[in-house]
Each structure stands twice: as structure tokens, then as C-alpha cells.
Amino acid sequence: METQSDEGGPTGFVFYKPLLLLLVLMACAKTTRRNDINNITQPQPSTAKTGEKTPPPTRKKKKKKIYLTFDDGPNKGTRKVLDIVQQEQVPVTFFLIGEHAFASTSQRATWDSLRIEESIELCNHSHTHAWHNRYNKFYEQPDSVVNDFKRCQDSLGLSNTISRTPGRNIWRVDTLRYTDLSKSAAAADSLQQAGFTIIGWDLEWHYDHKNFTLKNGADALLGQIDSLFAANKTRVPEHLVLLAHDQVYDDANDSAELHQLIKKLKARDEYELLVTSKFPGAKPRKEGSATAD
Ligand SMILES: [Zn+2]
After folding, report:
1. Distance from Cα 222 to the centre of ligand 1, integer Å
2. What is the pTM of this model?
3. How far, in Å, from the CA of 44 to the mean position of ligand 1?
4. Alpha-carbon torsion 288, 112, 127, 170, what sign?
5. How far is the CA of 165 from the centre of ligand 1 (A)?
């Protein structure tokens, strides 16, 4: 009814009708344009632009690396350390003295046990431990030092050339060169030239040299580890080498402290335990005459 009345209505109304239609059409066109603009300017997912995958919302933080190293075995404490390492299944490194491996029946048996454990790494700590701790005389003769390390390498049949100098905190790792006492530098350079990589330490778990007992417990040591990392005082940032001595852990209280330390380190998400061949720049098999095979 209304349509009919429109067609047959007054002239004024007929005049306004196309105008109204035009306004409606213009409004529609405007809306369409706005939608087009919106389509263009809407942010596109990065995959659509680059074809690359969008990174995950939370990235995993890189872990700080800790290298637990035990010197002077095989000796009375080595078996205790090995038991804990096997229980906790952690990678650690033993720096062995060549002549200790064959010094007694029990040391020979410990050496046999070390050789078959896969989570550990066995490295060179010289054959005679600097001619039985005569450090100054020992390091005065670079050729003798090299021969002593080669003798250990050959007698133990070690599969890598990573070494630690007895009584000296020396580093010869790729570009990292550090010698605590300069009189030992020539001997250390000779070792490196002969193909040995030398790893020192950032932190020592100190013990009383009279009775071979620890000076501080696991919690105190963990605090020291945290502090060194926090102050960025390790030789290579984010990497810490801890020096410990097997013999200390023959004592039940001290081996319990070691066990606690390892458990606590495992529980800390920001830390990862590794063997020393994983240390940056360490070349476990360098070209040279050091390897036995
Ligand atoms: Zn030593």
C-alpha cells in the first residue's frame, strides 16, 4: 500500500526519493572503502610476510656450565667419588696420576672401574705428580715435563689429550693462555706444543692438607659458585671449572657433602654439568705427538 502511495504521491516526495537513494549508496561505498583499508592495514602474521616460523613466546634460557673435576686418583677416595657419580649419573672428569693406577691392587681395581664408566672422562695429571710434588724443579725442565705427561698418556692409554698440571693453575686452551707462576710458563708452552690441552680451575673446594677434610660444606661451596657466576669472575664467562681432590671424599662426612653438592647442582635449572672436553676451545684430540694411538 505504501509503495503505491509513493508512486502516486506528491511531486516533492518523488523529487527527494532519488536523493535519498544516492545518500544510501554513498554511505555503502564509504563503508566498503573503510573495510578495504582495514584489510590492508591490519597487521599480518610474520609467517605470511617472511615464511619464517614465529619464535616461541618464551625462549629457554642458556644454562651456565659447570665442570666438576677430581684430581690425583686413583686413590683411597676415588671409589667413593665414583659411587656417587654412578648413583647420580652425572658427567665429571678425573685427572689421574699415571703411577697411581698401578700402585696397589685396590688402585688397579679402581682404575678398572673408572675405565668402564661411560658418564665420566679420564684425563692426564702427569705420571709422577711433578716428581712427587717437587714442583719448582719439575717445571724448570720443560722436556722432562712433556715426557712425564706422555708417560701417563701411554701407560693409561688415555683417549684424549686434556691435561692438568700438578700444583699449578695453568690454562692452554685454544686462545686462552694463563699461567699462575710465570716460571712454569715454558713447560706449559712445551706441553701445548706437544699436543696437550691444559685445563686449570676457577674454584677449588679447599681441604685441610693435614687430615684431608673439607674446609667448607656443600652449601658454602654452592654459594661460592653462585657468586663467581654473578660477578662474572670465571676465566671464560658462563663456564666454571671446579677443582676437587678424590682423597678428601674417603671421609664419610665429606663424601656426604659431595653427594649433597651434586644433588643440589642437579636441582638447579640454571646449571648444567659437563666433562672438560666440552669446555670452549678444548681440543680433546689435537694433532701432535701426545696421543697414544
Ligand atoms: Zn694434583
Report:
1. 23
2. 0.79
3. 62
4. positive
5. 7
Question: Could you say which DSSP state residue 61 is in?
Answer: P
- CATH code at position 164: 3.20.20.370
For residue 282, being part of any structural domain is answered with no
Pairing of strands 207-208, 170-173: unpaired
At residue 24's C-alpha, the angle toward residues 22 and 30, to 5°, is: 100
Q: Please check whether residue 130 is in contact with residue 167, taking contact to mean a CB–CB distance below 8 angstroms.
A: yes
Write out pLDDT tens, residues 192-231.
999 999 999 999 999 999 999 999 999 999 999 999 999 9
**Cα-trace Rg, the chain:** 35
User: What pLDDT digit, counting tens, does each position of 7-41 carry?
Assistant: 334 444 555 555 555 555 555 455 444 444 344 33
The answer as to whether 32 is a domain residue is no
- Which residues constitute the domain of residue 177? 64-277
Distance 247 CA to ligand 1 centre (A): 11
Say how many Å lie between the CA of residue 185 and the centre of ligand 1: 18
Q: DSSP class of residue 99?
A: G
